[in-house]
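Issue 218. Parser rejects a valid record. Input:
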Amino acid sequence: MNDWTFSEAERAAVYRAIHTRRDIRSTFLPQPIPDAILWRLLGAAAAAPSVGFMQPTEIIVIRDAEVRRQIHAHFESVNRAAAEVYTDADRRAYDALKLAAIIETPLNLCFTCDTTTQRGRGLGRQTMPETAVFSTVCAVQNVWLAARAENIGVGWVSILEPETVKTRLDIPAHLTLVAYLCVGYVSEFPAQPELETKGWEHARDLTEMVYFDRYGVRQP
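Output the parser choked on:
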């Protein structure tokens, strides 16, 4: 076997990480993440696909409890406002969801993107400048899958106001806040996505998502 090929077991492990990855919010443990493993996760982010090899991503590792308390307080405020768009059964369902574990996790990761970077000399961005942010999202996904392989859970918190978070974390104005992740070991990985098991939304069938040659053309 050539060293660039995957064995059957290695291939199966990649797909297992993909299909058992979960957005975790409620099964985190206080156990700290060793530095060696943290740097492996961050290394996975650095190895992510990046249009034009611009690598626009920067990551803030947040361990300080007071900083996390401030972010959590902001989340609570924004979450109360977000809940107001729902009524009746949807409101009751929303209120029953746990949507962040900012305090419960031993560390948080904040991903930013420098859309002004000159790295890569603009290759691939002339017609689609948003690929800078797409590249950072790829870094987030890499960390998420690497974390699953390390038996570490990740929860993405998007109920935050980017400018407020940037102020709290001293993030320069020209950077774009892309993702705020809660990261830690968990007691279990649910068999299904939490929002599916709680009835918030159902998984789409793959055949509903795929077309051939033109939009709307299903497989014969």
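Fixed in the parser; the record now loads. The first helix runs from residue 8 to 20.
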